Amino acid sequence: MSMIADFYGGKSILITGATGFLGKVLMEKLFRTSPDLRVIYILVRPKAGQTLQQRVFQILNSKINMQMKTRRPHELFEKVKEVCPNVHEKIRAISADLNQNDFAISMQDMQELLSYTDIIFHCAATVRFDDHLRHAVQLNVTATQQLLLMASQMPNLEAFIHISTAFSNCNLKHIDEVIYPCPVEPKKIIDSMEWLDDAIIDEITPKLIGDRPNTYTYTKALGEMVVQQESGKLNIAIIRPSIVGATWQEPFPGWVDNINGPTGLIVAAGKGFLRSIRATPMAVADLIPADIVVNLTLAVGWYTAVHRPKSTLIYHCTSGNLNPCNWGKMGIQVLATFEKIPLERAFRRPKADFTTNNVTTQYWNAVSHRAPAIIYDFYLRLTGRKPRMTKLMNRLLRTLSMLEYFINRSWEWSTYNTEMLMSKLSPEDQRVFNFDVRQLNWLEYIENYVLGVKKYLLKEDMAGIPEAKQHLKRLRNIHYLFNTALFLIAWRLLIARSQVARNVWFFIVSFCYKFLSYFRASSTLKV
Ligand SMILES: CCCCCCCCCCCCCCCCCCCC(=O)SCCNC(=O)CCNC(=O)[C@H](O)C(C)(C)COP(=O)(O)OP(=O)(O)OC[C@H]1O[C@@H](n2cnc3c(N)ncnc32)[C@H](O)[C@@H]1OP(=O)(O)O
Ligand SMILES: NC(=O)C1=CN([C@@H]2O[C@H](COP(=O)(O)OP(=O)(O)OC[C@H]3O[C@@H](n4cnc5c(N)ncnc54)[C@H](OP(=O)(O)O)[C@@H]3O)[C@@H](O)[C@H]2O)C=CC1
């Protein structure tokens, strides 16, 4: 019997960010392992044209692939529906916007949340690297502060689990499971965001974030400080995952549904848009599968509530120190998988190289990214269609420039608390809530990741693989034709303009002619 699964039975659980990547996997695992939980409250903001019910429906139900008109196998909540057929009755969606005062939650809903919540998992955040500081502070800092205030009014609350990121202190090389203070107090930052105008905020942002690369990592660090300062009598724990990737094993290998982190680049490589990337092949690729993060989160929730550690414990959910893999190995495996299982309608053949300095990066960006996009847009214009490739390529290059910081450095995260927790679990819990990253086989994981991107994110049918391979062959022929034509044109132009080139050309032609004549003569003699 799993003690952790048992613990969540009958509980009322509040999840923020449940419509996000990690939130969905968390909810799925909770329902699958503790189908007798009382309710999961999810704070959901209404989105353009969608009611709350429609958003919940979208999480729970398989999307129909309109091209195939069939229900696709393996949607996220498929297994849950077997063990918990009334799952939709156990999700209580509460209209809430974390950017608003009191989250704009109705009085009645607030009363219900305060009275019944036993555990909080705070996953909501803005994960954009380029978010305006005001917005990033509002969501990653102020909202966390408000949620803690709410939590302090919950008489039944047993644990508050805050999801941060292993990169909140990415300005350091070695990171321990402690909170490192930022120079300016979060309260001062929150206050200043109230009265400073956008232009001044823009001006001071680089000074505030200091040696961190973006507003995301900075505000996540401030969020941790807020958690520490406002913890009061609450039982709190912080989890710091590194780069969250597709699921490893559960509920299915390779499940992923958004383009954050490496996923977007995997798609770009598979579709042939991404041809070169500025990355250090030997740098540690600290990826961590989403199901490992979720298993650790649920174990931490149990441990924090039951064992009530005296101080706020921080748990690193990283792979680098226990089972390292590097970007070089990862890139090779991604491309090898696309050889076997290509994506449909690729723009070019999947083939990408790592570059290591600014000059080669600029060169390959011009030759392999910008030039093909301009040529393709020219072709689209000629055939009366709207050009779009240059815009898409510029977006990709912007994304690459934002991710570069993370793929050209290595960090060391200590994992004492995480390993301590693992040793406290029963063998059954170690199996059901496995977060031992040492058991992960990277090559197998990456292959499943790439396959998952094709199946779950892009919703491509496996039956289309032969056609996708055919398409790649056509692209290869076009590539050879194009290169030959380019060579001939360049040569013709050179010959027209340069006496030296002409001389070289005549020398080569006469040499070939003599060579052939010699062969012809010697074969005639033999006869
Ligand atoms: C040699 C072969 C190589 C093969 C590949 C090898 C893999 C190497 C991978 C290396 C990756 C390294 C990643 C490091 C990440 C470190 C992470 C730190 C960990 C964390 O804690 S944070 C969580 C991660 N966060 C992110 O990843 C967010 C990063 N993204 C952004 O900040 C912004 O999106 C970005 C990059 C600034 C781009 O902004 P913008 O140009 O404005 O574009 P949009 O965001 O508007 O989106 C464009 C387009 O995509 C759609 N979109 C956006 N997000 C999603 C989503 N989550 N799911 C689905 N679709 C999404 C969006 O709607 C837009 O579509 P349109 O149709 O409207 O144009
Ligand atoms: N993905 C990763 O690589 C990593 C993630 N993390 C952390 O994990 C957590 C979850 O990340 P992930 O699932 O990937 O992120 P997602 O972007 O997929 O999800 C973010 C969630 O926050 C919600 N949210 C955003 N703004 C608001 C708002 N104003 N009001 C209510 N809800 C809001 C989103 O809701 P909506 O659907 O309405 O947009 C969504 O549910 C975050 O705290 C992140 O910092 C840490 C390390 C790595």
UniProtKB/TrEMBL annotation:
Broadest EC class assigned to this enzyme: oxidoreductase
Protein's membrane topology: Single-pass membrane protein
Keyword Lipid biosynthesis tagged: yes
Biological process annotations from GO: long-chain fatty-acyl-CoA metabolic process; wax biosynthetic process
InterPro entries: FAR, FAR_C, FAR_NAD-bd, NAD(P)-bd_dom_sf
Listed SUPFAM superfamilies: NAD(P)-binding Rossmann-fold domains
CDD domains cross-referenced by the UniProt entry: FAR-N_SDR_e (cd05236), FAR_C (cd09071)
A single cellular component GO annotation: peroxisomal membrane
Chemical reaction(s) catalysed: triacontanoyl-CoA + 2 NADPH + 2 H(+) = triacontan-1-ol + 2 NADP(+) + CoA; a very long-chain fatty acyl-CoA + 2 NADPH + 2 H(+) = a very long-chain primary fatty alcohol + 2 NADP(+) + CoA; 22-methyltricosanoyl-CoA + 2 NADPH + 2 H(+) = 22-methyltricosan-1-ol + 2 NADP(+) + CoA; an ultra-long-chain fatty acyl-CoA + 2 NADPH + 2 H(+) = an ultra long-chain primary fatty alcohol + 2 NADP(+) + CoA
Transmembrane segments: 478-495, 504-521
Enzyme Commission number, as recorded: 1.2.1.84
One MF term in the entry's GO annotations: alcohol-forming long-chain fatty acyl-CoA reductase activity
UniProt keyword list: Lipid biosynthesis, Lipid metabolism, Membrane, NADP, Oxidoreductase, Peroxisome, Transmembrane, Transmembrane helix
Domain Thioester reductase (TE), residue spans: 15-296
Subcellular location field: Peroxisome membrane
Domain annotation Fatty acyl-CoA reductase C-terminal: ranges: 369-460
One Pfam match: Sterile
Family statement drawn from the similarity comment of this UniProt entry: Belongs to the fatty acyl-CoA reductase family.
Function per UniProt: Catalyzes the reduction of fatty acyl-CoA to fatty alcohols.
Record protein name field: Fatty acyl-CoA reductase
Organism: Lipotes vexillifer
